[in-house]
């Protein structure tokens, strides 16, 4: 078991990562709570809800809300449904919401916790590789049909309990999706980490010790950034590498049509091409492309129109005065935020979409 404490200017919480943590869940909760509401999705509930319930069996007041799996659930409709569940389960200010699942559940349940009675405690129990990213740092949100994560808050959990045993049941597509955020953490932080991940073959069974090492390194990269800039005034933008286009693709194609990680992976390729052009630098575009191809990431998608993509990119939260900001790399491990005017963006998008086909 490994513990990393995240300390920002306003709060502190532990990220506990290890095997078979769920059965001991109660010992990792930082306080005693009056009532607990467990929020999970249909897939995860079948796999891990019983273990969690069993671990909390002598607590009387446990409510359970199971929502449909998939990105479309990160919506106002389910946000409202969960607020109703919080009321009907008599949650009060000393109650806890447990988010048991991947990033969709963490973002949704976290936003419910952030707003119910103006904020009650929540614990993240991530069950996907991707959620090494989403469970840390305190971004919680739901999507608007017009744009990703447009309604949300910065609201940290009181603990992150990452039982990596749960990752064994992940389908290949979700392994791929999660590894996109791992490789992002490598690209924005350090050549050795990037090389290590880009040499990982996702088409054969993962070595769980190596995966846990990758997740720990990813969490360490994220922790360092959010500790310095929790509310994304400056360097936290680096964690958004690949997301300006990635989020636009997700919402244009319809939430859940492509996974978050798949869209971000395409967005990172694009950001590398723009970086190469703007900084006249050689960057590992081909290396990332080959890794994605080998590991069956979607590379040719049903592209939205460039006008629609640009409109969505302007809705990105980094934009100011409708000018798109992208996170670029001057070299691996050296991110930089750059304003990109519409004409330049259009030129790069046209070229990139032609190149990917
Ligand atoms: N808050 C943040 O900082 C942050 C960071 C990255 C991503 N995100 C958000 O996270 C979401 C994506 O997260 P995700 O990829 O975990 O998606 P997800 O939560 O939808 O999970 C993906 C799929 O895997 C299933 N699943 C989850 N755990 C499983 C397990 N152990 N075994 C088998 N199946 C399992 C789920 O039911 C779902 O069908 C997006 O909404 C994205 O915007 C947020
Ligand atoms: O933690 C961050 O900051 C990130 O940008 C991490 C991203 O991987 C994540 O997808 C995040 O939800 C994106 O945030 P948004 O502010 O662009 O919606
Ligand atoms: Zn992301």
Could you describe the 3D structure shown?
The chain is α/β, with parallel strands linked by helices. The protein has 2 domains: 2-169, 3-Layer(aba) Sandwich (Rossmann fold), CATH 3.40.50; 172-356, Dehydroquinate synthase-like, alpha domain (Up-down Bundle). Helices cover 45% and strands 20% of the residues. It contains 13 helices and 11 strands. It has helices at 25-28, 42-55, 76-88, 103-115, 131-134, 172-189, 191-198, 208-228, 243-253, 260-279, 285-294, 306-314, 342-356, and strands at 2-7, 12-18, 36-41, 62-67, 96-101, 121-126, 139-144, 147-154, 159-163, 324-331, 334-340. The strands form 3 sheets. The protein has a 7-stranded mixed beta sheet with strand order 1-2-9-6-5-3-4, with helices on both faces. A two-stranded antiparallel sheet has the order 7-8. It has a two-stranded antiparallel ribbon with strand order 10-11. Helix 6 (172-189) packs across helix 8 (208-228). The chain is globular, with a radius of gyration of 20 Å. The structure holds nicotinamide-adenine-dinucleotide, the ligand O=C(O)C(=O)C[C@@H](O)[C@H](O)[C@H](O)COP(=O)(O)O and zinc ion (ZN). Its EC number is 4.2.3.4.
């Amino acid at each position: 078991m490994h513990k990393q404490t995240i300390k920002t200017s306003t709060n502190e919480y532990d990220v506990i990562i290890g095997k078979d943590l769920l059965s001991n869940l109660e010992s990792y909760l930082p306080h005693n709570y009056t009532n607990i509401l467990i929020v999970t999705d249909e897939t995860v509930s079948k796999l891990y809800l019983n273990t969690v319930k069993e671990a909390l069996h002598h607590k009387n007041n446990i409510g359970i809300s199971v929502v449909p799996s998939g990105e479309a659930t990160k919506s106002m409709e389910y946000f409202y449904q969960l607020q109703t569940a919080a009321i009907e389960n008599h949650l009060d200010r000393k109650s806890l919401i447990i988010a048991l699942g991947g990033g969709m559940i963490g973002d949704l349940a976290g936003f419910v916790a952030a707003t119910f009675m103006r904020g009650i405690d929540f614990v993240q129990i991530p069950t996907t590789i991707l959620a090494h990213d989403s469970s840390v740092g305190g971004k919680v949100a739901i999507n608007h049909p017009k744009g990703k994560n447009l309604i949300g808050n910065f609201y940290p959990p009181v603990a992150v309990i990452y039982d990596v045993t749960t990752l064994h049941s992940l389908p290949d597509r979700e392994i791929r999706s999660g590894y996109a955020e791992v490789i992002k953490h490598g690209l924005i932080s350090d050549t050795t980490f990037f090389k290590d991940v880009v040499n990982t073959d996702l088409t054969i069974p993962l070595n769980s010790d190596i995966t846990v090492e990758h997740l720990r390194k990813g969490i360490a990269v994220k922790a360092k950034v959010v500790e310095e800039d929790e509310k994304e005034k400056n360097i936290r933008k680096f964690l958004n590498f690949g997301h300006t286009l990635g989020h636009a693709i997700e919402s244009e194609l319809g939430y859940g049509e492509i996974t978050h990680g798949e869209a971000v992976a395409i967005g990172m390729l694009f950001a590398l091409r723009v970086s190469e052009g703007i900084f006249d630098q050689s960057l590992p575009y081909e290396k990332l492309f080959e890794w994605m191809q080998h590991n069956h990431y979607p590379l040719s998608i049903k592209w939205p129109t460039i006008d629609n993509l640009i409109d969505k990119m302007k809705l990105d939260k980094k934009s100011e005065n409708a000018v798109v900001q992208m996170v670029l790399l001057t070299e691996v491990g050296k991110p930089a935020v750059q304003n990109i005017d519409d004409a330049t963006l259009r030129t790069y998008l046209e070229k990139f979409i032609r190149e990917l086909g």
